[in-house]
Structure formats: C-alpha cells, structure tokens
C-alpha cells in the first residue's frame, strides 16, 4: 500500500507525463523569400512529432514596420488513432528581425492550447512555442536552421476515477503550473513553384532535463498554397 506522501508526490508528475508525451515540436515553416507584401497561405502538414500527426492551418502576411509579419493559426491531431479529444490549437506570429537580401533571421511566438484524455484523466494545457529560424531564402527555394522551446506553462487536470482508485484517492482536480517543456534543434528547407511550397523539417528534441523523449526526433512534410 502506498503511503499518502509518496502517492501525493507521484500524482502531479504522472499526470503531467501523460500530457507531455503528445506535445508537438512545431515551428512555422515558410519560405520568406517567396512571400508577397500581403499574402494568404493555407498549409497542410503531416509527419512524426512525438507520434504521427496531421495538421492544417492558415497564415496571413501583413506589413509591419517595413517587415513582413506572418500571422498564423493551425490545428493538429494524431492520425494513427484519430481522437478529437487529443488536439493542439495554436496561433502565432513570425517576423524577420535581421537580414541582408536573401539571408534572414526570424523570430516566432505562438500561444498554444493542447488537450488530451486517457486513463488517468483529462488534461488541458496552456503554453507557448518560442523559436528562431535563420538561413538563405530565395524565391524558388530556401534552407534554414531552427531552434525553439515548446513550454507547457500551466495544465488543468481532471483526474479519472481509475486514477483515484489505483494511484491516489485524494487526487485533486485543478491547475498545475510550469509542468515542463521541450527544446528542439533542426533544419528546414523547401522548394517553391508557382504559388505552392513543399517544405521538409527534421530535427531532435530534448526535455528540460536534457533527456530525449520516447521519440527523440521530429520530421514533417508540409504543402502550402499562396494567393
């Protein structure tokens, strides 16, 4: 029989682990060299990010202080076992901060909402994805390096009856702050033809302790249409 102090200590880490497993190491992938001053972009994406996922989104390019600000929203689901209760919704912005002709460095920030439901409970996470991407952007192709941090700032946990009966009867529902995050480093590149882009991203992921998750790499392929 578990003593109350041990069970209580285990409660939050076990529940948070259940949420962090499906986190997506997403970044905004876009050919900055192919954008107009005011573009609309629709994209679809699929690949491996802590699991097999698929997503779709919309971006709008607007002028901002003589730069191109890319405003984005997207929605992601796992496709290996489609479940609408396991999702990620993200809105964000990407803006070039320095650059000379085709060499550019851009920063991004994306507030994120995630939800998942499993045997231990329902969890809803509020977080943010912060990143930088820099490289060579030409009208017909680009290649760039990316760094980012996917931060789960606070998580609301609704414990299941199974969790209470098998792990900790006194588990409380509520918000748990700063459960963790994941850092990523990788490459992205793509080709542009007409009003379309095909973009590949690959890289590695580590948690805040420096350890790799169960799937320590990510790789996605996206198709964009601009008008």
Keywords:
about 230 residues, mainly beta, Lipocalin, 10-stranded antiparallel barrel, about 10% helix, elongated, disordered N terminus
Short description, anyone?
It contains two helices and ten strands; from the N terminus they run αβββββββαβββ.
Give a topology summary.
Layout: H1 4-20, E1 40-49, E2 52-64, E3 67-78, E4 87-100, E5 103-118, E6 121-137, E7 141-159, H2 161-166, E8 174-193, E9 196-207, E10 217-226
Antiparallel strand pairs: 1-2, 1-10, 2-3, 3-4, 4-5, 5-6, 6-7, 7-8, 8-9, 9-10
What does this structure look like?
The protein is mainly beta. It has one domain: Lipocalin (Beta Barrel), CATH 2.40.128. It is 10% helix and 63% strand. It has a ten-stranded antiparallel β-barrel with strand order 1-2-3-4-5-6-7-8-9-10. Strand 6 and strand 7 form a beta hairpin.
CATH architecture annotation name: Beta Barrel
Give the strand tally.
Answer: 10
Question: Biggest sheet, open or closed, and with what strands and sense?
Answer: 10 strands, antiparallel, barrel
The structural class is mainly beta
Counted by DSSP, the helix tally is 2
Low-confidence stretches: 1-11, 17-23
Rg is: 19 Å
Query: What is the number of domains?
Result: 1
Helical percentage: 10-25%
Compute the separation of the termini in Å.
Answer: 63 Å
Instruction: Write down the oligomeric state.
Output: single chain
What is the CATH topology assignment? Lipocalin
Strand content: over 45%
């Amino acid at each position: 029989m578990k003593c109350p102090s041990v069970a209580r200590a285990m409660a939050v880490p076990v529940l948070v682990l259940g949420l962090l497993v499906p986190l997506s190491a997403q970044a905004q992938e876009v050919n900055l060299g192919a954008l107009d001053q005011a573009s609309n972009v629709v994209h679809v994406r699929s690949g491996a990010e802590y699991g097999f996922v698929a997503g779709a989104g919309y971006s709008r390019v607007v002028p901002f202080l003589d730069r191109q600000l890319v405003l984005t929203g997207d929605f992601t689901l796992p496709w290996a076992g489609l479940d609408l209760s396991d999702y990620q919704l993200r809105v964000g912005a990407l803006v070039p901060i320095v650059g000379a002709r085709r060499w550019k460095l851009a920063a991004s920030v994306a507030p994120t909402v995630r939800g998942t439901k499993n045997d231990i409970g329902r969890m809803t996470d509020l977080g943010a994805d912060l990143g930088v991407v820099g490289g060579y952007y030409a009208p017909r192709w680009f290649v760039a390096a990316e760094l980012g941090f996917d931060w789960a700032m606070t998580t609301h946990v609704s414990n299941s009856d199974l969790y209470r009966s098998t792990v900790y009867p006194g588990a409380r529902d509520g918000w748990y702050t700063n459960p963790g995050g994941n850092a990523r480093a990788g490459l992205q590149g793509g080709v542009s033809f007409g009003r379309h882009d095909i973009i590949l991203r690959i890289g590695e992921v580590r948690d805040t302790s420096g350890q790799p998750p169960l799937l320590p790499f990510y790789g996605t392929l996206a198709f964009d249409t601009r008008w």
